[in-house]
UniProtKB/TrEMBL annotation:
<keyword id="KW-0418">Kinase</keyword>
<keyword id="KW-0812">Transmembrane</keyword>
<dbReference type="GO" id="GO:0000155">
    <property type="term" value="F:phosphorelay sensor kinase activity"/>
</dbReference>
<dbReference type="Pfam" id="PF06580">
    <property type="entry name" value="His_kinase"/>
</dbReference>
<dbReference type="InterPro" id="IPR036890">
    <property type="entry name" value="HATPase_C_sf"/>
</dbReference>
<protein>
    <submittedName>
        <fullName>Histidine kinase</fullName>
    </submittedName>
</protein>
<keyword id="KW-0808">Transferase</keyword>
<dbReference type="GO" id="GO:0016020">
    <property type="term" value="C:membrane"/>
</dbReference>
<keyword id="KW-0472">Membrane</keyword>
<dbReference type="InterPro" id="IPR050640">
    <property type="entry name" value="Bact_2-comp_sensor_kinase"/>
</dbReference>
<feature type="transmembrane region" description="Helical">
    <location>
        <begin position="82"/>
        <end position="103"/>
    </location>
</feature>
<feature type="transmembrane region" description="Helical">
    <location>
        <begin position="16"/>
        <end position="37"/>
    </location>
</feature>
<feature type="domain" description="Signal transduction histidine kinase internal region">
    <location>
        <begin position="170"/>
        <end position="249"/>
    </location>
</feature>
<dbReference type="InterPro" id="IPR010559">
    <property type="entry name" value="Sig_transdc_His_kin_internal"/>
</dbReference>
<feature type="transmembrane region" description="Helical">
    <location>
        <begin position="123"/>
        <end position="143"/>
    </location>
</feature>
<feature type="transmembrane region" description="Helical">
    <location>
        <begin position="43"/>
        <end position="61"/>
    </location>
</feature>
<keyword id="KW-1133">Transmembrane helix</keyword>
Length: 363
């Protein structure tokens, strides 16, 4: 199958090459056809014959060069090394161009026009044919190698893009793989305290955790999740945690319903809520309220989670938040942001800002 593809590609390139050869040399040779018809009185038949021969000479010389360059693999050479080889090659091709054109001229005037022309004088007549040959061969060879250089750059760019995509996906998979055990560990800790105190509630907690893991597992490979699905995970998680915290944990929300069908990184809101409970509510004797807000700001989706507490400056950000920052940076190429700020009145606000219009963001 691969062989067939390569063959088809080769045929396509060969077809394009011959089209360029015929069109290019046909266009260039029109000037000389006009000259011999008006100045030298060749007549229509011999003008057309001369026109075909001019095209043939140009194609013959450049095609021979192409065959040689392909065998010598000149297109794969660095530019400096290639240029060193091209200068003498262009000179050689220009000389051959002069000789073939002079022989053609000599053959016409000797065998067709019946005039007595000197072969040596015909061959050494180089002005202005040499300059024409240098110009034409330079243009052709430079155009040929520039095309191949461009093709090579396009292929390299595609390969680099594919490698970048693979690396990006590997990073996201790695971060996601770290995040799920992190989430599971904290959830199991919540359930552990319920097993002895209230087995019935513990069973309900296990059911909730089971649903959470099932949902997150299905969405994990996609990298992104609809906000409405992420909120369903958050509500299940809050119900799970309320079994432990009871009235000490309250959730208030302010959700823009126009945004629920947009996608965000999987488990991003859940992570912020989890951190709000672990580092805020859990440390307060009387607990508190976690306030979740999702709204539109200009061309961005703004997600904020506010909870009572203070930021512990002696500790660096946890694994979950570090991973979230990396995921946002990779997924949105630096256009998204995450911040964690301490406000007055013993309050901490975590904020995610995501571009509103991105590919595959909305249904």
């Amino acid at each position: 199958m691969d062989i067939n593809k390569k063959t088809n590609n080769s045929n396509t390139k060969l077809s394009l090459y011959w089209k360029c050869q015929l069109i290019g040399w046909s266009a260039v040779s029109i000037y000389w056809a006009y000259t011999v018809y008006t100045r030298d009185n060749y007549g229509i038949f011999y003008t057309l014959l001369n026109y075909v021969l001019d095209i043939s000479i140009g194609i013959f010389l450049t095609h021979m060069y192409r065959q040689f360059a392909l065998k010598a693999k000149w297109s794969s050479l660095p530019i400096k090394k290639l240029l060193i080889r091209l200068v003498p090659t262009i000179l050689l091709l220009a000389v051959l161009y002069v000789l073939l054109n002079n022989l053609k001229w000599y053959a016409y005037w000797t065998f067709i026009a019946g005039e007595n022309k000197n072969l040596l004088q015909a061959i050494i007549y180089w002005d202005p044919i040499l300059l024409t040959g240098l110009r034409l061969m330079s243009i052709w060879i430079l155009a040929y190698h520039l095309y191949h250089y461009y093709q090579k750059e396009v292929v390299t760019a595609k390969e680099n893009a594919q490698l970048s995509l693979i690396a990006k996906q590997a990073q996201l998979d790695n971060l996601s793989a770290q995040l799920n055990p992190h989430f599971l560990f904290n959830s199991l800790n919540s359930i552990k305290s319920l097993v002895i105190e209230n087995p019935n509630v513990a069973r309900r907690a296990i059911d909730l955790l089971s649903d959470l893991l099932r949902s997150s597992l299905y969405e994990k490979d996609k990298g992104l999740i609809f906000i409405k699905n992420e909120l369903a995970l958050v509500y299940d998680y809050i119900e799970l945690e309320k079994m432990r915290f009871e009235e000490r944990l309250q959730l208030k929300t302010n959700i823009d319903n126009e945004l629920i069908n947009y996608k965000i990184p999987t488990l991003s809101i859940q992570l912020l809520v989890e951190n709000a409970i672990k580092h805020g509510i859990d440390l307060k004797v009387g607990g508190g309220v976690v306030f979740l807000k999702i709204n539109k700001q200009d061309a961005n989706i703004c997600i904020t989670v506010e909870n009572p507490g203070v930021i512990n400056t002696e500790k660096s950000a946890g694994l979950g938040l570090k991973n979230l920052k990396k995921r946002l940076d990779i997924q949105y190429k630096g256009k998204a942001s995450f911040s964690l700020k301490e406000k007055v009145n013993d309050c901490v606000v975590a904020e995610i800002i995501i571009p509103l219009h991105i590919e595959d963001e909305k249904i």
